[in-house]
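quick one, 490 residues, struct below
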Amino acid sequence: MTITAHRSEQELRPDPGRVIARIFLPGEELPNTPSRAGAVVERVLALPENECEALVAAMLEDFADRHRDYEGILAAHAAMVSVHLGRSRALTPARTLLLGASFTAEFALEGAALCNPSAVPHPDQTSLQPGQVRVAVSLRGVGEGHLSSVGFATAVAGPGDLWSFDPRPLPAVPGVIAVARWRPEHVLAILADQGSIDELAHNVLAAVPPEFSGPDLERALAEAPPDLVLRPEAQATTDLLRKIVSSAYETGFPPDVALAQQVLLPVVAEERNGIEDARFVRFVEDDGGVDYRATYTGYDGREITSRLFTSPDLRAFQAHRLAGSAAANKGMALFPRRIHGRYVSLCRSDGETNCLAWSSDGYVWSDPVPVHQPSASWEMLQVGNCGSPIETDRGWLVLTHGVGPMRKYSISAILLDLDRPTHVLGRLDYPLLKPATDEQDGYVPNVVYSCGGIVNDGLLWLPYGIGDARIGVAWIPLDELLDQMSTTRA
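---
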């Protein structure tokens, strides 16, 4: 007997109307090209006032409903180029908005694709019927230039095999960015990854507070011993420290913005070309405290970085870089609780094997231990996880993906021991889910891929990306899946 996933009729497709208004600087579209901002400002200043007013009236009619606080966005963008106005040049309200609009462009968050979902219980579980759970689903939107961001949808699962996505409201709303704080030992671990710890770094990190930010770093650098600061190698250390500390940030959303409106955009250099494959998990601490965490991949156009979102409520987020040998590749997925007092994560540090890693603080990860290597025909190229392990009474259920000939992706599962997760109890020797005939085509053909599922009312629910182009949903009776795995010992 074999089991396969049942496909729901529910589906999410990319919405080209989900746009944000972001700063646009003419002449700076490509690296190392000069800005044309000054010339554009002069043209805006040369327009007659009545023409400015007419243009702004038309803009407000066309764009105000597409963005939250559209006029505030334009005013902020105008302020960014106000250096070209001179000290005594005052602008009318209409000309200020026109100036801001001249340095603003819309970006379609899902203009190219929608993919790689993960599912967690929503923080709000009120107003539900028996057997239902409200689900928060993270989504990877891909826009112009293959730039990825994280959005959200909400759904209700249950009772039984019912799943319903809620409408996704507009407009899409980016978060408000603020500086985050670091612990010195976390920065030291990142420096160690790069082989860049010297005496200047030791001195500076010994002088900052136990939790510090950029201004604290600058004070410590200013007070460092001159003999260390003036060494030829010191500039590289200084630049690296500043780069690392500036890579953390906080982002949050006003209370009147729904979860499905929220967008986590690339902010720092490590994310310049996208935030990819966020694997969210509802994490329960040993003392019963709950928060939400998501490992994700930052991509700067050349290199990837393993990073972490933490959030108490899916409304305020902190983003930090992860460290250690286990964080050297894509695809980390956190266990939903500590095991024997330590954080545990799946990873794929060699690029093709599911491994396990441990951490004392959730940020610095130890040497990985292999638990599942490619072996079957449908996973000959590599294996990886499909999100955080799911705790069952028989073990940790890990949904896996395998890549086979023609770079075809399939989804299967393994089972790990609850107390000794490096011990594999069982596995399926066939896929639960592989691209159906009508799922072969897409932005990336022949791919079914998920970043995390959820169990409710005896069913495992798995939102999954189809061809990196749209989102489907499948379900499997949990006990039937576990029964199959218990008969196939690894």
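Residues 200 and 228 are 6 Å apart (CA to CA).
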